[in-house]
Amino acid sequence: MGELILEMKNITKTFGSVSANRDVSLKVYAGEIHALLGENGAGKSTLMNVLTGIYRPDSGQIFCHGKEVTISSPKDAVDLGIGMVHQHFRLIPTLTVAENISLYTEKKGFLLNPAKMQKRIAECSRNFNLEVDPAAVVWQLSVGEQQRVEIVKLLYHGAEILILDEPSAVLTPQEAQDMFNVLRKMADSGKAVIVISHKMNEVLNNADRITVLKDGRMEDTMVRKDATLDRLTRAVVGKQDYTEHFRTQKKISPDVVFSMEHVCAKNDRNLDELKDISLEIRKGEIFGIAGVAGNGQRELSEVIAGLRPVTSGKILAEGADLTRASARERREKGIALIPEDRLETGLVPDLNFPENIILTRYSSSRYSRKGFLRFDRMRRDAEDYTKEYEIRHGGFDFPVGLMSGGNQQKLLLAREVSGNPKLIVAAYPVRGLDIGAADMIRQILLKQSEKGTSVLFISEELDEIFHMCDRIGVLCDGELMGIRNTSDTDVYEIGQMMAGERKDSEKEASSHA
């Protein structure tokens, strides 16, 4: 272990009545990968936001290389060699990848050289196996591609202390391991790497030391040789007998709730993205979509929800043609959406809890009477959601942007299932969540399925798809490579399809029986 490069002493940070950090102390050494674990709302991101100058602590001290420092802004952190990839990205959507990365660097002349800048960024991204197109406009990129831009931005800048919030959430297992290999090289060169992760095995395989936060306090700290899955789970969740809930196999109804026939659609660059997609989803079925990020998953979810037009093909719900129907009309037909970016498409971070729960139903008789909102009903429903879904928040008057990611996701899911949908499109519903919050989201979807609601479940985690889904469809380059009953396939075959190998449909026949 190298020298003590960073020390945070007795950090306390509160938001209203909520204590996000309470007397937290953390030591980080040069040459190590230090993992931060904890449930959503445990205070991990808040602690790192204090370190990077996003928040000012109410009390406590920060030391860099043994010298006490005051970090009043993100610029102060950058000047100290501290950089962070946030879970919700700090990118300007209307600028290119190269322009976003250039804004983060210290040395800028009056005029930019776009060609030279793009060449250097492309070389840097290739070196770290995180290739992105420097000329692409950020709003046109998928969530996975945007996260790669954020990671490249730090690596390009050469920060001495790197903080990554769920860095592997949108990467394949192979890409994630390649990234950790890069982080290991950086640590070996004397840099300090802090990784916020909810993946226990990932932490056990790659971290040198692990710190667990719970309810804003430090619960446990251990070196890797002393860490076990049981010890980590007990520290994070606080349950001796924690068991995740997964799908039990059942016979699927033959009733088709939703279908797509030869659907094609374009992406934000006006290029063909979805190519001849045909599938059927049955009543009560959980239909999984597997694939590496950026292969049409976002476009598929938006096409189904009515947020993106089709260029050809048909979309049917219980036999009714919804191909040209608006998002509102599809919602009225029972199609609900859990988008991949909860704060970009699902929630409005500056609005409060009750305001967010009526976003999709503000004109309904439940929340509106003669053109006036029924605030009493909004607040009552917010209280019911809080109890039923165990949503933690600082108060109904605070913006939901201050809530943790897991609680934001539970609020979003509670709102969508409250309308008794017939089909829930869930795009990466547990991405970036701790094991407790992720399990609750899965339980909600499983219960909806048991009630007869169909679920389209999009995920990059193959273990999760196999545990949750009845059938699996695989997307690669916007094409459906094949559909399999979960019980009739394995990770190897699905992996082949994710890599672009099209499979025949013989094994699909039993799903129509």
From TrEMBL:
Gene3D superfamilies: P-loop containing nucleotide triphosphate hydrolases (3.40.50.300). InterPro entries: AAA+_ATPase, ABC_carbohydrate_import_ATPase, ABC_transporter-like_ATP-bd, ABC_transporter-like_CS, P-loop_NTPase. Its main location: membrane. It is a peripheral membrane protein. It comes from the Bacteria. It holds the Pfam family ABC_tran. Residues 6-240, 258-502 form the ABC transporter domain. The keyword Electron transport does not apply. Keywords: ATP-binding, Cell membrane, Membrane, Nucleotide-binding, Repeat, Translocase, Transport. CDD domains: ABC_Carb_Monos_I (cd03216), ABC_Carb_Monos_II (cd03215). Signal peptide: none annotated. GO terms for molecular function: ATP binding; ATP hydrolysis activity. GO terms for cellular component: plasma membrane. It is found in: Cell membrane. This is ABC transporter ATP-binding protein. It comes from Bilifractor porci.
